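Q: Hi! First time doing this. I have a protein sequence and I read that you can turn it into a structure. Is that right? Here it is:
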Amino acid sequence: MKKVLFFVLISVMVFSQQKNLKVADLQPKSENFNFPVVSFSSKPLIEEKINTFLQVNELEFIPKSGKNPFQLAATATNSYRNYVYFYGWKKLETPKNILSISIDGEATGAYPEGFIDWKNFDLRTGNYINIQDIFEPTSVDIIQKIVNKKVTEKIQAFLNETNENTGYSEEEAKEQTNLYKECLENVDGQNLEYIKFFFGKDKLTIVRERCSNHAMRALDELGSYQIDLPYQDIQQHLSTYGKSLLSQSEKAIPLNTIQNKLYKGKIDNQYPITLLIKQVYDDGSFSAFYWYDKNKKLIEWSGKLKNNHISIKENDYHSEELKKWIPRAYVEADVNGKKISGTWQDYKTKKYLTLELEEL
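A: Yes, that's right. Below is the predicted 3D structure, encoded as structure tokens:
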């Protein structure tokens, strides 16, 4: 009975409009750059958080720090030295507490590679939604197994079909079969927390990457795998946060995680900074950007999180003579709830400065 009531609640609420929430084109829009910008007049802090996350994470641009937010992506002067183009976006129909945006484009390194990504935000806080937070810890493996099983079924069904008159040569057909057989052997190798996903009006969709690399893509007819999980079917696996997120509740439940979050604070109690911590991986490693609010220039951090303690290195420049990065500073800090407190140490002078940050 509870399961039915939950589904009815979800079905009713998805049609409620998110008041004052609009998504438009970030300017200057062009053929190669069609990127979303959020307007949320009734909740300006949430608007700021979402736009800051999107622009810093995707464009490496701090909002209002220059005329062209696409400059680094257009000139391959971003941190990964690739041209990145954004061709379109779409706001999806979701429960009222969630904003899901699909973004498609192309990244060009050794060769051009099209992509589609999804970004999901909690509209009560403006925080990016981490998929593992939606489920009970004991259910993460269960959901992963459900997804893996559905991917396996899709691949197996394709292999079981007759391949006559496909237009492939005998050698190509054999390569295609081997491609999918090898993929079946490795279908369990992708953790749920690193998988793309998005919310719909009545289901969560998990997106598993395709089986092929760039060289084999022409033979990969299945492409990526979209696995639909109706809210009604996964309700028993949702965490307290997940249930709250999919409900009508406007009260957000705090989460003890630092990944994909924004922080504000000061170095030496006098230099205001903003920090974006990205994905935290299984070994505790993570990367981050921070900037001084006055000059708005991105500075990279690479760090490790262990037992609520973070150790971070801030690089200064790469020495061609020594063939290595020369540090500018080291950070040692403790995470306590929504706060990060510690020290920023200058590499040259060895001087320690205080670091105090709080989640936005």
